[in-house]
Amino acid sequence: MGTVFPPQSIVDIQNRIAAGETTPRQALAESARRIDADDEELRAFVARAPLPADVPVDGPLRGIAVGVKDLFDTFDLPTTYGSPIYRDHQPRADAAIVAQVRGAGGWVAGKTATTEFAAMNPAATRNPHDRLRSPGGSSSGSAAAVAAGFIPVALGTQTAGSIIRPAAYCGIAGLKPSFRLLPTVGVKTFAWSLDTVGLFAPSARDVARFAGILSRRPLDHEAGLDIDRLRLGIYRSGIYDQLDPAMADALRKGARVGEELGWFVRDVEETESLRTGREIQAVIQDYEGAMSLLDERTRHRGEISPALLQALDRGGAIEATRYDEARRSARRARRATAELFDNVDLILAPSASGVAPLLSEGSTGDPAFNRLWTLAGTPCINVPGLRAPNGLPLGLTLVARFGGDRLLLAGAVRFEAGLRRT
Amino acid sequence: MGTVFPPQSIVDIQNRIAAGETTPRQALAESARRIDADDEELRAFVARAPLPADVPVDGPLRGIAVGVKDLFDTFDLPTTYGSPIYRDHQPRADAAIVAQVRGAGGWVAGKTATTEFAAMNPAATRNPHDRLRSPGGSSSGSAAAVAAGFIPVALGTQTAGSIIRPAAYCGIAGLKPSFRLLPTVGVKTFAWSLDTVGLFAPSARDVARFAGILSRRPLDHEAGLDIDRLRLGIYRSGIYDQLDPAMADALRKGARVGEELGWFVRDVEETESLRTGREIQAVIQDYEGAMSLLDERTRHRGEISPALLQALDRGGAIEATRYDEARRSARRARRATAELFDNVDLILAPSASGVAPLLSEGSTGDPAFNRLWTLAGTPCINVPGLRAPNGLPLGLTLVARFGGDRLLLAGAVRFEAGLRRT
């Protein structure tokens, strides 16, 4: 078992640079050193960039090494989308958010492992907390690299549960912002109605800082928000019989933490529209995925894993009328989600059924608990802080109304502190 | 002045193939022959495909030569996005809809000229009706190639007015379907909230046939629709002082045709929300465009035209708060547009201020009359059939509610027949 470094905090690095305690070059060199030391075993990165001769010394991301999921195009590093079809693919341009990272003075340290086209076929990455376990997917390498202390922040994407779940399994903060808050331009499309760019960092405070910089909005400022008296809804879904006992207990702990914070805690029930939304998310994902990857599944069938090929062919067989009906259900679910927030400010829900699965199970875990929030486009965050009796991380999701990213992050910072005290 | 061939109709070609009067190979060869004969002067195509040895003989698009705007990726033809930055760019995969064209047995005859990144810098294409005039933009080559009778159908995109306007200037049908009815995967993004894939054909009936095949929905079937008693709203916008007298007259003729068809014709006023929507479309376009092309405008400034560079830099200077306010205005405009259709089934509006501008003016025309319908995501079609006193085509737009593509097309077929009788 290799070394796990302590987490790198973007807030801390920025403070130390501002105080003259470190330089951007030293901060980046430390990230590079850690990756060098341990990634051969962890396998979070699939391509590395050399430390630049001229390290940017301006911009809010100076000194910040950023892991970029290998689903985002980069002009200077190959981009495989996790597929052998693109094994030697070199994009011409950066994805929009990668260009933003560089424009803000950040360093793209390398490309992090993704499952095949961000679907279910596992990447080779291991979980830093137990290297016989999966880091989750599809943003496997980004979550693992942050959790291993290699880098302070990373980019990922979520179509069903690909940010929230790996963040939960790896014990870090993962933010899926409001739909299209961060641009998907230059990211390989799976399902255009669902694909969402998101962020990883060790803590809610760190991910808020990163989100504030990339969104160009004051997402890490609490000014004007009343975090003392939030209304917290404990979400009650029809699939909670799938929760491991440790996760059911974590959810109870989360409710208790809410009360300890002085928040108003109440249950929120999954309505019929929400249940339908959760269920038909897969129809939209499958239909759009089959269309997005039509060229690949036509001309490169032999280079697609059997599981994905089956999913794509299944999606290609869905009638347009069924997809249209699913889109109408999705609109109803979005409205029903918005109505939930008439009565609560934040919702608490499980990020996954339990702890990370063993690699030997051949799965990155089940996104069932994430599907509704992706479909709804509502911002959500995996809040770390709890552990199962076996010591592995357990993640809880906080959700806010569409556009409520700032309230979500401020609440998550407070909530994470509470969880870590339990 | 080169030869202008009579239009090629997809419906007609399909009928003749079915009747054994022609073969798919003969139909494609005729398209290729016409392009060979005249495109050196018209300059609709920027890349050509050789006629394949094995012509597909199955699929609804067998025998159909398709022009593909050079904004769509093609695995077998270079794709420049109209920019010297991509002069030698060869994508790895087909755009989703291009793969659909091929899967349906269609032949990608070549890539058609686009303005630079589908923005305002003109392509070299000439208008088939007057070669000293612009075919409009940004889907310049697609519209011109169909209008010149080279090919029966073509693919385009619209972010402000890039389908409707060139269709109007070229005297053909141009369909901008409901937002995301056709996939944008593999199309170079300018503004993700606005970019819409659309289609060109000589007539409404032809474009309906093509749309039905590519959308996998029965868009060219009138069954169950009552086209005899439609309610037609004549749209009254605050910018009609910009209409040329010929276009103002065309709009009056359109209203008369509606009455002659037995439709209920009434005026529909531009409300405050709609006016704001029309005006803030440019904010969204500029902001998103600056982000989508951030890599290019950072690393390739010298290879971007001054006009576009200015627009991108202007977009990059827009504050996120102003963009968010524009998005809220867009939502209000979408709701207001939906409310218009509580009282009417279709709306009639001008497609442009008048006829195609002269090439010497250096402009592809003004999209002011198209912005609202793009922002709203409502399906609309340029209906050809009228001409100005100088003989050049004038186009009218029909608009339907979001998702009402089938009604729109059925109404447009009827309306076009009425226009052609005037």
UniProtKB/TrEMBL annotation, chains A, B:
One Pfam assignment: Amidase
SUPFAM superfamilies assigned to the protein according to its UniProt record, in alphabetical order: Amidase signature (AS) enzymes (SSF75304)
Molecular-function annotations in GO: transferase activity
Domain Amidase: 57-409
Keywords: Transferase
Segments forming a coiled coil: none
Source organism superkingdom: Bacteria
UniProt-listed PANTHER family: GLUTAMYL-TRNA(GLN) AMIDOTRANSFERASE SUBUNIT A, TRANSAMIDASE
Family membership noted in the UniProt record: Belongs to the amidase family.
Protein name: Asp-tRNA(Asn)/Glu-tRNA(Gln) amidotransferase A subunit family amidase
Source organism (scientific name): Aureimonas pseudogalii
